[in-house]
Amino acid sequence: MIGQSNDSEEWGQMQNLIKTVTFSLALTLVGGCSYFSVYKRDLPQGNLVTQEMVEQLRPGMSRDQVQYVMGNPLLRGPFDDDQWDYVFRLDEAYAGVKQRRVTLTFANDRLVNIEASGDMEADMELSPDLDPGPGVEPAGAETLPGVSPTPAPGSEPDASGEQI
């Protein structure tokens, strides 16, 4: 009889151990599944640089002309303003990282050198941000019926129709 109670105790402990190991294994497998992972989204950073933009650049262009084509540079040389860097990096959620870089060098306020790196010809598809985000009133937005916009204080027109 004494031997039987020890056997049943050992069997109960073995069952608890099997349950614990099975539960731990199941938890590990479920935790490792990509189906249950955190949502990721594409993360674009920097200036979007395209092949068409780079093709428009010509040595001898002024800084204003370059800025019209490329936009404001992401980086400027810290000690002189003769080097502009345009960097675009797209960290795709479930793929790799794509990066493009264009370095422009100026002398006497004229473009003298263009260095491009990265795959400029590859199409980088940027998905629109569909998150609700903060509400921004579009230009020309209508006001609520029966509500007229109130002018800022001190901007009431006088009798001649001019703002004061």
UniProtKB/TrEMBL annotation:
It comes from the Bacteria. The keyword Transmembrane helix applies. GO terms for cellular component: Bam protein complex. The chain crosses the membrane at residues 20-38. GO terms for biological process: Gram-negative-bacterium-type cell outer membrane assembly; protein insertion into membrane. HAMAP family: OM_assembly_BamE. Gene3D superfamilies: 3.30.1450.10. Residues 119-164 are annotated as: Disordered. Residues 46-115 form the Outer membrane protein assembly factor BamE domain. Signal peptide: none annotated. PANTHER family: OUTER MEMBRANE PROTEIN ASSEMBLY FACTOR BAME. Keywords: Cell outer membrane, Membrane, Signal, Transmembrane, Transmembrane helix. GO terms for molecular function: protein-macromolecule adaptor activity. Belongs to the BamE family. This is Outer membrane protein assembly factor BamE. Residues 119-128 have a biased composition (Acidic residues). It is found in: Cell outer membrane. Part of the outer membrane protein assembly complex, which is involved in assembly and insertion of beta-barrel proteins into the outer membrane. Pfam families: BamE (PF04355). Coiled coil: none annotated. Part of the Bam complex. It comes from Modicisalibacter ilicicola DSM 19980.
